[in-house]
Design a protein that fits this description.
Arc Repressor Mutant, subunit A, 3 strands, 6 helices
Amino acid sequence: MLEEPRTDAIYRALELVWGRMFEEKDDTDSVWEGYTTHLMSDLKIPVPYYGKILDALQRMGCATQLQRGGGTSPSKWVVHKAPTLEAYIEIKPQLGGIRGGKNATTDQLLEQRVTDIEKRIGNIDIVKALADLQTAINRLKESETDVVA
């Protein structure tokens, strides 16, 4: 059973997020650029709602993500039409449970964990970083051998 949309926390929050994105978008191309985590935090939206809100905005055709942010890189979103009750009621069953909630599936929990890890490491190329580290270790070993010999 669906909660009344006007009292639904996710619906209220996504209206706030879309409204702020709309206010701050570039008027020439309707692109909002910024940090979604900062935006949600400024609006006092609980962390577990972040992904669900952005998913809902995309499913309803209210916003499209152009560039995923991370670390020091901001996100870029095209801001489209305002959210409506009708669109929200239609897509709400497609939204997963809140992270860690009793409705969250294993896939949703894993997806959230991967997202959390990506946010922590930012734009680091882990494979390259490990290769560079191995090269440095090999050079140290070589220089140690030269000193001993």
